[in-house]
Amino acid sequence: MNTTGKLVLSALSVLGLAACAVSGTDEAEVLGESQEALINGTEFYGSDTLFNAITAAINQAGLSASLDYLGTGSGKGEQCLEGTGAAPCNTKAQTIAPMSRDLQGSCDSGQKSNRIALDAIYILADDTQAATSATSANIKGAFCGDGSGSPATCANFDTWGELTTGSSNPSNAIKLYRRDDISGTTDTFKSLTGCTTFCAGVKIIVEDLIAGPRLSTDSAGTLGTPNTSSIVTYSGAPTAAAPCLQTDSATDCIGKLAGADIDALAYAGGDGLRPSNPFANQAFTIDSKAPTTANIRKLITDPSNKYPLARFLYLNEGNGSRATAETNFLNWIIANPQTFENTLTASGFIACDPGNPLDCGATGTTCPRNSSLP
Fold this sequence. Notes:
Layout: H1 3-14, H2 27-30, H3 33-36, E1 43-46, H4 51-60, E2 68-72, H5 74-82, E3 96-99, E4 115-120, E5 122-126, E6 133-134, H6 136-144, H7 151-154, H8 160-163, E7 175-179, H9 184-193, E8 203-206, E9 214-215, H10 250-259, E10 264-268, E11 281-283, E12 285-286, H11 293-301, E13 310-317, H12 324-335, H13 337-346
Helix pairs in contact: 4-13
Keywords: Signal
Signal peptide: 1-21
Organism: Sorangium atrum
């Protein structure tokens, strides 16, 4: 969650300037028009999973006064690289995008696919949930039935007893949470599980620069009405019903939702892991493969025996005109690969090759790798 954005909005409120929110789906669910207008050449979008790590790296590089990371989702980052989104991303508004997936489609001249670390899509449940594992087929069934989201097939996996064995409350309905459709984590989850459409009962968590993380069914935050999220506690100690903070990223919030209810189940990247209270969660073993560092690293060394939802993380590049702040940040990463990798691993992500920082290879990527990176 971007705190600078909220400070800007607070200043506008003091000046008496109004703003309106946009209703609708996908991108409009995530950001209102007033929130889109925050972009001014020093901010950039990308993976929400990488929000904490990239923000920490910007601070380490001494660039926090000139560069601000907004997160929101990999899809938003790619739109802003290619100029295919809503304003201001209807032109090439940025040239670097931290992403939890590769660029989609064909590679345009000058674009780069830069793998920087390993991560996984973790299946998260409350740490007191007695069940600790499931099959990938049943995870697919819980979130999207046969893949099409048909009510009949979703109904086959909507209780804990239908999902897995040994659960705390086998007859209880599963309370499911996911990221929105602009999320690279959602793109990867769908690709790895074979989902195309989610079950209607899965609740969607979106990033809102004013309200904080919220359900897609909550109203977007506006200058006059910022406290619209039903899952955020705006004052006092967070509760199980509203465990998230206004400053949380959507991924942080999903991790808390999974750890706040024994019947909750969610997917998220590494930033969603919460090993300790409040709202501690656990990551499920899938197909008898635990999401350990060794099993995730097998994505490179032994793909047939990897954790099934292992993935790469990326710092992708576009071919627009690069701003000075972006240049400075990329140059800092190139000059300090070990420091940048340490920042990634401190956020729970996994080094591809511990002896060679950021060296994740380029075989099978959409675009070539930046040759200045390891």
